[in-house]
Fold this protein.
Amino acid sequence: MDAFLIAIITFILVVLGTLVFFFSRYKRCPSDKVLVIYGKTGGNRSSKCVHGGASFVWPLIQDFQWLDLTPFSIDIQLKDALSKESSGVEMLSAFTVGISTEKGVMENAAERLLSLNLKSVNELANDIIIGEMRKIIASLKIAEFKTDTEILLNKISRGVMSGLRQIGLNLISINIKRITISKDTIPSTPQF
């Protein structure tokens, strides 16, 4: 009888241990985060992204981290940009961006932003936004700034969104606070 009791207790402990192990490695992803599983993920993928679901993370061969989907605001003070007519343009604006949950773009975020803190992500997005805005302003005439701000917003939105998607971010909103145009202003070029 003692051997039978020991076998039952051993069986129960093994089952409980297996259940505890399974539940400790089963990760549920809340709606405001992306679960990024990396390591041995199968195929030629560097990571597996889960949003609004759950996944099992195998010990030793896989690990996981979270990407926060909380949007953040970036204040942009663009100075010394040149229009198509070489007029100086200064623009004060605010962009709201966040990590994208779109397939393909979300994987870009996992590859490029996972190890970065919010300040670094903000700086990276800031650089991309300023670069895209300079390109867009350089392609426009001053009259286009004054006549239809909707066209300006659409061009900025398309250009900035294209740049941000490459690192896994999504443009949520743009707020242009002020545009200052100075005629015949060419900023000084740096001497190399």
Notes: Residues 37 and 43 are 13 Å apart (CA to CA). Residues 2-68 form one domain. The two ends are 91 Å apart (CA to CA). The helical segments are 2-25, 105-112, 118-138, 142-147, 149-165.
